[in-house]
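FAQ: What does the model actually see?

It sees only this:
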Amino acid sequence: MSLKLNLFGPGTAFVMIAAGVIAAAAIVSPKPAFAQSSTAGTRSIEAGSDAEKKAKLKEPSYMTREERLNAKPLDPKVTSGKPKPRRMTAAERKALQDAKPEESAGGAPAPNAEEEARKQHPNDWK
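And it is asked to produce this:
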């Protein structure tokens, strides 16, 4: 009885790929992290503090059905507002007045520009 072992068959290739994927996943997968203990103790909001006032001043993130039904549409004239022009500081104004126009030097042409143009637009080069 002869036993032929085919290492390059389709079944073997699948097993080798699967083993490689599993090995890669084991190497790359994140390690489990342990919960960090807090060394600083806990803090709470005390009555009458600024933090409590800020928490109370925040608007709720919900509306009741009645509030939604009674809500008036927004007036676009009021909500859009008018942009306020930005005022330049004295230093900015002086820098703008003292600035002189300049030009930057041009770059070198592409070394193979003519070859590319001939390839891309052959009708123009007759």
